[in-house]
Design a protein that fits this description.
Length: 469
């Protein structure tokens, strides 16, 4: 087999997996070659749309010759290319007066290229360098403004990433030394024969790397301070880059499943992050800071789902959150100014009814085998959200839309299960833990509605602590 194929971790029957990354690299080269900087954004944008077209071709190839490993990589390539193309298109207007737009276009294109290589890399000698490169490029974009605040935010991001990168390096070195190969598939398969202590160490290091990149506490400060980045970078970061932690745990799911203690740690860390980020979202008055708190909560929920063994549910969450958060950030400017029609808050009674219906629904789905295991948790929250919004709105359109949205959710969950083509792993606490967590999250929603309805808010010390977090 040729050396290039062995390094990339691909089969000798070469496909076009890296073609989207090549277009992104071409966009970086053409943007950097524009000395005046006037055409750099347009050049990067065209390359971004070409990368998206190539990613769509990969999906077509996947349908023709499906494979479990390629399913995850091809789907994330499509998501990254789509968000990247939209962000670059938005940047042609948003950044056109920026004096450093040439450097901006080059860095964004290089960042997209590194992520597109990362999702396909089958060899640790490729995987680790592009993982590190994506973090450093992101930190550079956080500090793009060149102000002291931007430079401090970029430096904090680099410090968090260095810790995570070192943990990933140690995990890959441990797994590679055991198998005697840098091939990631061999590492994952060989992890089962490691001693229990080393299995736990490798899984713990992978979890630490995921937490640092996904901004879970104690690493959440880098994301909260990253609002110095231009809005298109924030959209790309929150829609894609912070999801890298979830991707890492999905990719190495078998290693995590072999260490139940680390699974429990992932559940605990994700649970804390979900509530901490939710509180941050409630108290931060600035729209981008509030969205950053929401992202921390969502990343915590994703890591929690991975700890429960729900890799397909986590992947579906990754897609939905990525697209939705990109839309929110790119439209965040519309939040400036008066709100003409403020949304009516959902009452505590409606929230409680929705929570009870959600618990009954997942019990029925589980009993009939339609949705099982860790996927029951996000399903419960999705049902409660949909039912609560429908009852609160009280319109015929919402009642008609609810079954459509429910069908789309179940279809998306089924599609991600088919893409991974792997049976779900058992959660440390079984279905009992999943139902308990669902009840806890739903009770938290009811408590939040009660606080909002009563006008009391969070306790003052906690409120102040969150404002300064």
């Amino acid at each position: 087999m040729p050396l290039s194929y062995r390094i990339a971790g691909r089969s000798p029957h070469m496909d076009f997996s890296y073609l989207p990354a090549c277009f992104a690299l071409g966009g970086a080269a053409f943007a950097a070659a524009d000395r005046s900087g006037e055409r750099s954004l347009r050049r990067a944008e065209r390359a971004g749309w070409a990368s998206l077209a190539a990613a769509a071709g990969l999906i077509a190839q996947l349908w023709a010759a499906p494979g479990p490993a390629d399913g995850l990589a091809a789907s994330l390539t499509l998501l990254t290319s789509f968000v990247g193309a939209v962000v670059l298109s938005f940047s042609t207007r948003y950044m056109r007066a920026d004096p450093r737009r040439r450097a901006y276009a080059t860095r964004v294109s290089l960042l997209l290229a590194s992520v597109l290589v990362l999702v396909h890399a089958g060899n640790a000698l490729v995987f680790l360098p592009v993982w590190v490169a994506s973090g450093q490029l992101l930190a550079g974009l956080i500090g793009h403004a060149g102000t002291p605040a931007a430079a401090a935010a970029a430096q904090q991001a680099r410090r968090a990433f260095v810790i995570g990168d070192a943990a990933l390096l140690a995990a890959l070195a441990l797994l590679g030394a055991h198998t005697g190969s840098p091939d990631i598939a061999a590492m994952i398969n060989g992890a089962a024969s490691l001693p229990a202590a080393l299995q736990g160490l490798a899984a713990g290091l992978l979890l630490l790397a995921a937490m640092a990149r996904s901004a879970l506490p104690p690493f959440s400060a880098w994301l909260m301070r990253s609002m110095t980045a231009p809005t298109p970078v924030s959209a790309l970061m929150h829609a894609g880059l912070v999801n890298a932690g979830g991707f890492l745990l999905i990719r190495f799911a078998a290693v995590l499943a072999a260490a139940p203690a680390v699974q429990a740690l992932a559940i605990g860390a994700g649970l804390f992050a979900a509530f901490w980020g939710g509180f941050l979202q409630l108290v931060r008055p600035e729209i981008k800071q509030s969205l950053a708190g929401s992202t921390i909560a969502q990343m915590g929920f994703m890591i929690l789902t991975c700890g429960l063994g729900g890799d397909a549910a986590a992947l579906w969450h990754l897609f939905a959150h990525g697209l939705f958060k990109a839309w929110l950030f790119l439209g965040s400017g519309a939040a400036i100014g008066p709100v003409l029609r403020p949304a009516r808050p959902q009452g505590a009674a409606i929230t409680a009814i929705a929570a009870l219906l959600a618990l009954a629904a997942i019990a029925w789905l589980d009993a009939h085998g339609l949705v099982t295991g860790a996927a029951l948790l996000p399903t419960a929250l999705a049902i409660a959200t949909g039912v609560g919004a429908t009852l609160s709105a009280g319109t015929k359109r919402m009642f008609l839309l609810l079954p459509v949205l429910s069908g789309l959710y179940l279809a998306g969950l089924g599609a991600t299960e088919a893409l991974l083509a792997a049976p779900p792993t058992a959660s440390p606490g079984g279905d009992g833990l999943v139902f308990a967590l669902a009840a806890l999250f739903l009770a938290g929603g009811v408590a939040q509605a009660l606080l909002r309805q009563g006008g009391t808010g969070l306790p003052r010390p906690l409120h102040v602590r969150l404002l300064n977090a």
